[in-house]
Structure formats: C-alpha cells, structure tokens
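=== Given protein ===
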Amino acid sequence: MLTTRAVQRASRILRHSRYLASVSSSSINPTSVGPFQVFDRNVKRLQKDRAASHDGGERSRTVDYVRDEVAERMIERFLDIKRNFNSVLDLGSGAGHFSKLLETEQTQKVMMLDLSEHMLNRDQDTEFEVPVEREALDEEKLLESIPRNSQDAIVSCLSLHWVNDLPGVLVQIKEALKPDGVFMGALFGGDTLFELRTALQLAEVEREGGISPHISPMADPRDMSNLMGRAGFTLLTVDVDEVRIGYPSMWELLDDLRDMGESNAIIGRRHLIHRDTLAAASAIYKELHGEEDGTVPATFQVIYIIGWKPAPSQPLPLERGSGATNLKDVL
C-alpha cells in the first residue's frame, strides 16, 4: 500500500512528464541573419495565459521572486541614468515587475507590452506609482504597433530569451527609440539552470540512450556586445549576474517554472518524459548539486544590457593617437 509521500511523488512524476523547464547551453550565432524559428510563440502565449489565470493569478504571484529580484537590480542601473523620461516602454513586461518600481522622478507614464494578455492584466493599476497603459503585443512584431523614432526609453525584463530572432528584435527596438534614446534589458543567459539541464541529460542517456530536445537556445554573454553593436546601439554596457535559489527538490523547481510560464516551448518538443527518467533526474540532481541541508540549488544567469541610439549630441571616443598622456607614464 502506498504511503501519502509516495502518492504525492507519483502524482508529481505524472504531472511533470508533461511539463519541462527550458534550459540551455547553446549560444546565438552573431553572424546569423534573418528570422529563424526555434520557439512556438503561440504555445508560449498559452503557457503564460494559463500561469496568470491559475487560481486567479495567486499561483503566479507566488513565483514572482526571480523576476522581482532581477527587476530590483535593473532599477538600480536605471537610476544611474540621470534623466526624466516622458514615457518608458516596458517590452515583454509580464505583470509589470519593472514598471511597478518606476516613480515620477524617472518617468511620467509607462507603456507595458506583452505577448500574454492575461499576464499583462494580472495586477491592478493601483500597484503602480506612475500611470500605466497596456497592450497585448508580440515582441517580435514591435514596429507593427510602435512608430519609429517615438520612444524615449525601452526596457525589457526577462522576456527576450523567448524571441526567435534576437538580432532582429534588437534592431526593431533601436528603430523605435528616438535619437539618444536608451534601451536597457535583462535576459537569461546560457548557463541558466545548468544543474537541471545536466541532471536531465544524464538521466535520459542512462534510461533512454539519448538526449531529447528539451533545451532552448539562450544568448551567450560573450555574444551580446556584438549583437547590440550589429543592431546599431552605441555606448554599450554588458554585464552578467546570477540569482541562486534553493528548492526542497527538483519537483518544486519544475512546479515553479510552470507557474512562471517558463515551460518548454521549442518547436518539435517532446511532450512526454518517461516517469523513470524524471525520477532518475531528481536523484542525479540531488547527488550532483544537493546542499548539506537537503535542498537543491537552481542558478539563473542574467545578462544585463544597456545601449543608446546614436545621436549627434552623444559623446564620441577620441581619435587614435590624440591622447595627451603616455600610457607608459601612467603604468
């Protein structure tokens, strides 16, 4: 006869055989051109809609901790820009994790755009300090709704890792900005959830003799400067940070990723994982990465990017050989 713990564990195995978080080690090729299809954007919209609608949005709110933490770190960078913007466009805003932190000292209003209408409207306007406008819009089609040279500032908090054509979206962002407008973004990097990725890969090799496409490509931090430069941004800043979260086991991590709307959305993805494989992955995860207190860590690598649209008034680097001080004297 099964115990309560065994029944709960069996239930989780069955549920998670249909849900798998997306993780990656591969990078975007900075020399690639034109759109390419990796993610099913309609599936991603449905995943986010379901996450925002579950229990009236309460389940979604309980897993805001990663996006809220990254938004806090982004606003610190945004405050370093000593300028009051007429408006800020929050691209892929979700429920407004970054927009909720904006105050009237930074902007007069914020426009939130997101693929998921349910996630976009999850929270009330009373939770925002500045006036909010909302529009359901696919980030990949920004210029279909936003005119060129119209935005003072565009931000994006943990949305761009799901777009198919990241170089193309960066070009659209630059085109939507006014001259001397700023873009600030945060997106998951290729080392995100490496613990989960290695556990699943080892379990599949052991139990099934191969690896299925559960892996979604995310940007490598080393590529982002090239991608931003190719898109036409100047005065670039790229830095990398990590958010590390502890979970009781792999199952709670998968639960939270599903409630975040971060389940796998790769085109041609496998919809079912064998129960034995998931059980093996959980054991491997704990064996390889488990902490002394019994928890397992999950690492979210976050790439922060800042770039400006060129303008005649921007400062330019000095020409080579024009320096007045010899570097040898300084060193």
Remarks:
- The chain is about 35% helix and 20% strand.
